[in-house]
Amino acid sequence: MDFVLFAGTAVLGRYFVTPRKSLKTSTSIAAISWETLQQQNAVTSNALLEEYKDSRRFAKLAAYEGDLTIQRDQEDASKLIKGIEFAQQKGVIDPNFVPEPYIPMDVLGKTPDQVADLILQHVNEHQTTEQNGLVLVLVGLSGTGKGTTVAKLNEKLQQQGLSVTNWSNGNVFRSVTLLATTWCEQHHADDLEAALTKDNLASWMSMLSFGKNPEGVYDIRIQGLGLDCYVSKIQNTLLKSPTVSKYIPTVAQYTQGEVIVFAAQAVEILQHAGVCVLLEGRELTVNYVRTPHRFVLHLSDESLIGKRRAAQRLMAAALHDAEQQRADNSSVKEILEAALDRLVEDITQN
């Protein structure tokens, strides 16, 4: 359930300018200033969307990025479906499980703050007083702003004095992969995929537990095969070793069900402890977490997905060039134009 960058949905109001070239240039510089470019957020992307709304070059880049994003989403979904079906066949997860319904939310024309406020409004109207913590799920296609919406929700809930955490299955998959590769090393097994049997996976998952570490923080503990450590202590070392990183895709394909069950249990523990848990990901992976607070973000104008991604790529490339050239307001427009030309040339050659 990794997070994605929210590029913003509110498009800035159109500028009413005369066709005179000098006035158009002045407006462009004002719209895309050095300060705006440096922000690298929804403000920047919205300004770029407005500035290049009539640009054929930008439209070409946006169409390419939109098609690529949809293609990746479809490929990821296909792999995920296979993993879920495999878990159902093994009896790890219930094929007849029905999650609570999702609440559709069109984010077109809304800022991240507005989306987060609408979600919290719904939560406040439906959260009962006897419930301890809060579990809030967000799903949607890439480019609909799940990651930044989650960040805004985290910020707003903390401002209310609540304990908040963002749950991700990433480290669970890495922990299982660490156990799998360790087992293979100890048993001199060269074929890791062959080692991913139902019994082995059940054994490795039993070596994972969730609770408070010695510092009093909720954490995943790995105990088995000679390992005894908390994920927070090894997440940037052992769990990101070349061996673990290499085999994560293979292990993930076989352990979707096991990890989903583990995550659901961990989230339940956090909720009972009064923690607000925020989950962002794909429906098939978060469906098994019980909560009435489910939201699916979508854009009624799906072309904006590609436009947002194009804006993100353009602003990142232009910022890099601007920093190298120590740019100021007078040169930002020129740098943007050069960066856009380069990006379009790259996709044309590919």
TrEMBL record:
SUPFAM superfamilies: P-loop containing nucleoside triphosphate hydrolases
Top-level taxon of origin: Eukaryota
Identification of the protein by name: (d)CMP kinase
